[in-house]
Amino acid sequence: YLMVGQGARKDELEAEAARQGLANVIFAGEVAREKVVQFVLASDAVLVHLKKTELFEHVIPSKIFEIMACGRPIIMGVGGEAGRLVAEAQAGVVMEPENAEEFVGAIEALRSDAALGGRLSKSGRAFVEAHFDREALAEKYLSILSRVV
Description:
Layout: E1 2-4, H1 10-19, E2 26-29, H2 36-41, E3 46-49, H3 63-69, E4 74-77, H4 80-89, E5 92-94, H5 100-112, H6 114-131, H7 134-148
Parallel strand pairs: 1-2, 3-4, 4-5
């Protein structure tokens, strides 16, 4: 398991992994934004997780679009609109935030069914290409602005 980033509980998690002697957990820390894609492409699946709060029911982490574009399945631990988007895209396994049993279930589902990971990867990539292409969105936005002016 590769943990990338500088989350609020990184030090606590790193200490707990060391305490338990977990040799299969690596903490990469914060990495340059342009290198994140390399980590995504090296992954079998990518966890996107936020605390279970009402605030996070209304956010969509931009990294989900990058992960889908890279063709990797998402283990989605974010509720609300972000979870609905990943479910609609059929791009990952959606789990309740902070639910350890569902997290383990998502990992086991992907590990035991390679075809599932492949389907989620392809579906996510196709979804982001069809609905979130930056050039197509920019042209659409320019067209709306032109009509308004």
